[in-house]
């Protein structure tokens, strides 16, 4: 591990995954942490196959990959709330765990997109509110949609 990886990013710097609103940032930060600490081989490479005829180098690669997978699973689990952790079955492979988390939040994101689209298309200014409040609410909904890669202009 390089000194820069330990100084610039560690698990304490990554916000805890609490819900769909911070999933994308959490995923980027987790990927960066795994990459900087060279645990991303468990995400990027398939599990090596071992046999009785495996060479010393193949055994070494398998051990390195297994350790990276174990650490990656621990980092992923430590980076989320108990509620989220309890709602997702923990698989054996870190790459499968990330895929399961992504599927869970894609479902949540669809509902969130629908909610903000509804605000943009159906929200009407009320007689008691100010035009400024109305514009701020609409701008906020548009900003949140853009942050979810829904380009509305």
Terminal-residue CA separation: 43 Å
Low-confidence stretches: 1-7
In round numbers, the mean pLDDT is: 85
Largest sheet report? none
Strand content range = under 5%
Helix content estimate: 55-70%
Shape: elongated
H/E series: HHHHHHH
Number of helices: 7
Coarse structural class: mainly alpha
According to DSSP, the number of beta strands is 0
Q: Nearest-angstrom radius of gyration?
A: 21 Å
Describe the structure.
This protein is mainly alpha-helical and 153 residues long. The protein has helices at residues 3-8, 23-36, 41-44, 56-78, 82-86, 94-122, 131-147. The chain has 7 helices and no strands. Helix 4 (56-78) runs parallel beside helix 6 and helix 6 (94-122) packs antiparallel against helix 7. It starts with a helix and ends in a 6-residue tail after the last helix. Mean pLDDT is 85; it is low at 1-7.
Helix/strand layout:
Elements: H1 3-8, H2 23-36, H3 41-44, H4 56-78, H5 82-86, H6 94-122, H7 131-147
Helix pairs in contact: 4-6, 6-7
